[in-house]
Amino acid sequence: MRRGQRADLKTIWTATLQTVWDDLPDDERRRHDRTTWEREFRRKLTPYVEGGRTEPWIAEDGTGTFLGYLLLGEGGGFLTSEAHGFIFDVWVAPDHRGQGVGKFLMSWAADWARSRGYRKIKLEVSDSNPQARHIYEELGFRYERHYMGKNLG
Ligand SMILES: CC(C)(COP(=O)(O)OP(=O)(O)OC[C@H]1O[C@@H](n2cnc3c(N)ncnc32)[C@H](O)[C@@H]1OP(=O)(O)O)[C@@H](O)C(=O)NCCC(=O)NCCS
Questions:
Q1: pTM here?
Q2: Where in the sequence is the domain holding 85, given as residue range(s)?
Q3: What H or E segment, with its residue span, contains residue 84?
Q4: From the CB of residue 34, how many other CB atoms can be counted at a distance below 10 Å?
Q5: CATH number at residue 32
Q6: Tens-place pLDDT, residues 55-94
Q7: Is the separation of the CB atoms in 48 and 71 below 8 Å?
Q8: How far does residue 120's CA lie from ligand 1's centre (Å)?
Q9: What is the per-residue pLDDT for 153?
């Protein structure tokens, strides 16, 4: 694992925008133009991707091939005063999926949070992402709250 650098930003931006777009509820995605949505969402996301609110961590193999990344930071302090480690994004390069990289990154993220003194680590995941949910549950994450939505037609 190594800290992310400016040269990694293009990969991170492309990946994170794609993940969020794919995980938007179908009815909302249909109402949005991808280009306009990306422009607006990029603005909101910039502090997290390149503004210091998260630490980017990159997984590489022995030859320097980019395997995936994590965006890690702090969450919480709203419902209670307790802060926790927060996984803002986890992504594995498509050619390297299904080989355990995702699970490795998630375990590494838990160690990262523990080493910074957090008692808990959290994340948000879409209902439409069963693969990610599978990994999180396998690694001991449990559902704590659910967003609910109802389409008003
Ligand atoms: C989710 C993601 C990080 C997983 O990375 P990965 O390296 O492929 O994950 P791993 O190889 O460690 O584990 C894959 C697991 O998913 C399971 N899986 C694969 N497809 C699945 C599906 N459709 N439903 C449920 N589980 C599935 C595999 O069986 C395996 O679990 P197992 O080891 O218990 O058998 C990767 O697919 C990714 O980058 N997706 C796009 C970004 C994303 O969705 N990020 C999460 C945002 S919350």
A1: 0.94
A2: 2-138
A3: strand 83-92
A4: 10
A5: 3.40.630.30
A6: 999 999 999 999 999 999 999 988 899 999 999 999 999 9
A7: yes
A8: 22
A9: 81
